[in-house]
Amino acid sequence: MERTPSTASPSTAPSTASLGGDAFVAPQSTYLNTASTGLIPAAGVAALHEGVLATAAGRPLDHFRDVEAARAAFARLAGVPAHRVATGASVAVYAGLIAASLPDGAEVLLAEDDFSSLVNPFHMRPGLKPRTVALERLAEEVRPGTALVAVSQVQSADGRIADLDAVRDAARAHGARTLVDVSQSAGWLPVPQADFVVSVGFKWLLGPRGIAYLTVPEDLGGLTPFLAGWVAGEQPWDSCYGPVTELARSARRFDISPSLYSYAGAVAGLDLIETLGIPAVRAHDTALADRFRTGLAALGHTPVDAPGSAIVAVPGLGARQPQLSEAGLELSDRAGNLRASFHLYNTTEDVDRLLNLLA
């Protein structure tokens, strides 16, 4: 006999409607997998379509304006001026750039089982001393000689949220810098203050793949622009041939030649997040996650302890992901966990459908 899962109380339960309203193409599944890829708003899909059609017709659009619009929007979310934001394609590229700029012998403190795109570049760079500790011990493990602490604000595998205030205080006390990956949090959590912040744009920021952002300090963080191409010039169109004679005086010197269509599609998602506001998005997303946690308890399942997270990971249930996909529910199997992740196009009905299938 099917058990009916308990749900959140009426005072805390989110609306049965999605927060995004009609901003999205009607999904053909119950999509609970934003931690892998977010859904692109209909306006972003239209911008992508228009860009490709214009190019095919020999009528290219100025998508560099979209790059600048996306840069400015991410800067507002991050609470920094746009001249401190670089645009690129992946977290690994920017983590690698920071790794390459560190001196030989520098210790880099990392969290266990953090996402590979963030941590692997520090292991690949010869001469560095990466040291890995449990996420919960990250702040207390900062010590004299630690040059950089690199961590995701929200862990991809299970949704745990790092204590970034403690990490930042410990890093400052020991003269270390901080690098925070907000790929799993930007769009539903406030972007933290750190020396360097990096993020992809295709999860909770609702853009296409092929986008990443990097924020740097006012002094540019001592980074060497090893990957500088023509777009990194102060006057890019005058920097197309031979060595770039004048690098951009801003974080744009760390720009990677952009995937222009992706940025065309990114602006709509960023605009939607800005219009709704992070507090409203966070309240919606985490209320759904809490509803799922409550229902899991009624079914006898205990998720990874990650209070306040929009990601819920259930140990031991990852193997059920293919069965759920066949039933029309899209989730992820990560590190043996069944991972559900909630965003503004999700509803209480989505949560309850998942719980009923798990029952």
Features:
Aspartate Aminotransferase, domain 2, 9 helices, disordered N terminus, 7-stranded mixed β-sheet, Aspartate Aminotransferase, domain 1, alpha/beta, 12 strands, 3-stranded antiparallel β-sheet, 359 residues
The rounded Rg comes to: 21 Å
Low-confidence stretches: 1-15
Give the total of beta strands.
Answer: 12
Strand order of the largest sheet: 2-8-7-6-5-3-4
- Overall mean pLDDT stands at 94
CATH-defined fold name of the largest domain: Aspartate Aminotransferase, domain 2
**Given this structure, which CATH class of the largest domain is correct?**
Alpha Beta
The CATH superfamily label of the largest domain reads Type I PLP-dependent aspartate aminotransferase-like (Major domain)
Oligomer state of the chains in this structure: single chain
Number of helices: 9
Write the CATH architecture name of the largest domain: 3-Layer(aba) Sandwich
Q: Classify the helix fraction into a percent range.
A: 25-40%
The H/E string reads EHHEHEHEEHEEEHHEHEEEH
Tell me the number of structural domains: 2
Q: Report the biggest beta sheet as strand number plus sense, adding barrel if it closes.
A: 7 strands, mixed
